Amino acid sequence: MDLWGVYLSHLITLAMLEVMLASRDCMMAGDLCSSDETCSPRLRTLRQCVAGNGNMKLGPSAKSQCANAVSALMSSPLHGCQCKRGMKKEKNCLSIYWSLHQAFIHGLNLVEPYPYETVQRDYDYVRLASITADLDIGMTTVNRCLDAAKACNVDDLCQKLRTEYVSACIKPTAKSGLCNRPKCNKALRRFFDRVPADYTHELLFCPCTDTACAERRRQTIVPSCSYESLEKPNCITQMRICKADYVCRSRLAQFQYDCEASETSASGCKQGNYAACLLAYTGLIGSTITPNYVDNSTSSVAPWCSCSASGSQRQDCDHFLGTFTNNVCLRNSLTTFGSESDQQPTLSVPSVPSAGHSSSENRSATSPPQTIETERSFLDQIIPTQVMGNELLVGQSTLPSSSLPNSASSPILILQAAFNLLLLLHLLNTGP
């Protein structure tokens, strides 16, 4: 085969991969199943199986009907389909995924690691450092958190979405005078899903050596609105609320998979990927189990919840909370962030802090409660302009964006890929 043929062969392979990847989208797989006379009734049966009172509607043969539906769908496009984190209609996509992948469906364990496609992130720390290098000339110390804020402010997308979530989180409502937590959380999720990790991770995980830096880092997600409340709810209750929501449940599954600890791994992580663990951690921000730094004197993180009134579920509660407070994988991911090498550490595992670490008790000694006004003043130092005019539009990020395409375009993508494949085959037959 001549050079022309080899070139077209490679293009055909790429086009075929494009078709295959598009078909793995759960929205597209759901559409294909719904339009198939064999798959569609099986999917309806399965959705009744996983519904709260679905078994009653199916009658005494519910168990066999559910098992048959699962077996049939295992060979359908639904099996193996995935979603994209932050995609439009993400909840719809995840509802299709979880219809098939429940923890236990009549004794059939179908859990997969998590429903999201794997995203490879290569952080350009050198480039980020160059953004503020001219401002740091003559300085004897480097404040990574301050540099991260500067870098975000010169990127249109990062500055816009960061300003949006800060404004949403500090603005009091007319009725109660308190912040609008749902609106704040939505804006936070938008920021961490749309802005490249080069910026978000530097803002949230920048290393600190003093309490002023650590407090700036702790305030990144505006914890007075997105994190804290007058009393700590029970962790089991928060986890149940999370698992009842498709998005939160999926983000938690991703976190538990990518940040799973291992005593036999040199990195402390079973998957051996610090970047994936940190990305999964940020996916929880804006949910009912939002994690944050518990004080400004350590790098310990935890969701705002307690296991003090868990009763017979205390062990389960401690286990859940321990995935944050007693997790060597997460701790190593946080402490080694920003190293010049992507190599995992080979040193011995650091000592494990107490699982009963209380965020409210530790913060009370180092970080006094802040009002909305003092927080506004504090964040003014990070974001010079809190209210932007219409002249600031969303531009292309100077780094590869993590924004994800709308799943609704999947049929179009598949048709385009198929057309490209046919065109390439024609060119291959006709020659140059």
Q: Percent helix among the residues?
A: 40-55%
Sequence stretches where pLDDT stays below 50 over 5 or more residues: 14-23, 103-112, 124-140, 340-412
Our measurement of the CA-to-CA distance between the termini, rounded to an integer number of angstroms, reads 13 Å
Rg over CA atoms: 24 Å
Mean pLDDT figure: 74
How much strand?
under 5%
Structural class: mainly alpha
* Major sheet: 2 strands, antiparallel
Cross-sheet strand order for the largest sheet: 1-2
Helix and strand pattern? HHHHHHHHHHHHHHHHEEHHHHH
Count of DSSP H/I helices: 21
Strand segment tally? 2
Morphology call: globular
Please, could you describe this protein's structure?
This protein is mainly α and 432 residues long. It contains 21 helices and 2 strands. It has a two-stranded antiparallel ribbon with strand order 1-2. The longest helix has 21 residues, at 3-23. It is globular and about 65 Å long. Mean pLDDT is 74; it is low at 14-23, 103-112, 124-140 and 340-412.
